[in-house]
Specification:
Elements (H helix, E strand, L loop, with lengths): L2 H17 L2 H4 L15 H8 L3 H8 L8 H10 L4 H11 L16 H9 L4 E5 L5 E4 L1 H7 L9 H7 L2 H5 L3 H18 L4 H13 L1 H7 L9 E8 L3 E12 L2 E10 L5 H14 L1
Antiparallel strand pairs: 1-2, 1-5, 3-4, 4-5
Length: 276
């Protein structure tokens, strides 16, 4: 386990312990005054059925031999969801994670044609480092991006003012992006371009630092998003995201509206503007 991996594991476990209150975990506090709202290490250790010393070593990233039973006990104690459990396994067993090629990403022509064939929904294809790889005209118009542009969406989310005006709940959308980067970092901790992106955002965006420090982890496969689009106004849209089977680091994202809704009419208007 590398030093980076130790640091990531330690930070992740600490963030989840500090976010879990005694009331949610079922820990009796007997009315005592606590300096922090989260659990103490000894409380997590007790819930996980292990010694305080052993759990402390794990949380500090000092233990290199962690069994699946121990990880399962810690995950249960910290009330981790499925995405968080998978992330914990990646951090604890880095040698068992299947690494993918780190070269430039290329979008297959057939995937681009699939995106362009969709006319009622906005479609974009996003790479492993949140680079925009392709999409249809409506997808580019929805994000306010020129068709020939291929920006990095994480960099744009945190460093460009436009998304703050586009997304009604910018904080939620920014957390989704940070979550995706966190999971990608767990998959490819030695990806220099990914590490460079995280480093750049850490330097230039205090909001990224704040969100990133909470170790958000979520696959974000579907959501409901509120847009305040400068051309057509307020829209409530449904998002579905799928990993491409033979390029699992790439996601194709479909964004549409409930049929017959005001948002559907506005999205259709945006589509006509995008195709003109």
């Amino acid at each position: 386990m590398t030093e980076h991996r130790n640091t990531e594991l330690a930070g992740f476990l600490r963030s989840r312990r500090e976010a879990l209150t005694p009331a949610v975990a079922g820990v009796e506090t007997y009315g005592e005054q606590r300096r922090v709202p989260g659990l103490r290490r000894e409380e997590v250790a007790r819930l996980a059925g292990m010694s305080v010393n052993y759990y402390t070593r794990i949380e500090q990233g000092e233990s290199h031999q962690i069994s699946d039973a121990v990880l399962d006990s810690i995950a249960n104690a910290l009330r981790l969801d499925e995405d968080e459990r998978l992330h914990l396994l990646r951090l604890a067993w880095p040698a068992q994670v299947v690494r993918r090629e780190l070269g430039p990403e290329r979008l297959r022509d057939t995937v681009q044609l699939l995106a362009e064939s969709m006319t009622e929904q906005a479609v974009v294809v996003v790479g492993r480092r949140t680079d925009l790889l392709g999409g249809n005209p409506l997808g580019f118009a929805l994000l306010g991006i020129e068709r020939d542009q291929r920006p990095n969406l994480a960099r744009r989310m945190f460093l460009d003012p436009a998304p703050r005006e586009l997304f009604v709940d910018w904080e939620l959308e920014a957390t989704y992006v940070a979550s995706y980067l966190r999971m990608a970092s767990g998959d490819q901790p030695d990806d220099p371009a990914l590490n460079e992106l995280v480093g750049e955002l850490s330097i230039k965006s205090p909001d990224f630092v704040r969100i990133w420090s909470a170790h958000p982890v979520a696959e974000c496969t579907h959501s409901v998003q509120e847009y305040e689009h400068p051309l057509v106004g307020r829209m409530t849209l449904n998002t579905e995201s799928f990993h491409l089977p033979d390029a699992p680091s790439q996601r194709i994202v479909f964004v549409g509206a409930t049929p017959g809704s005001d948002s559907a009419e506005r999205l259709r208007l945006l589509g006509s503007l995008a195709s003109s």
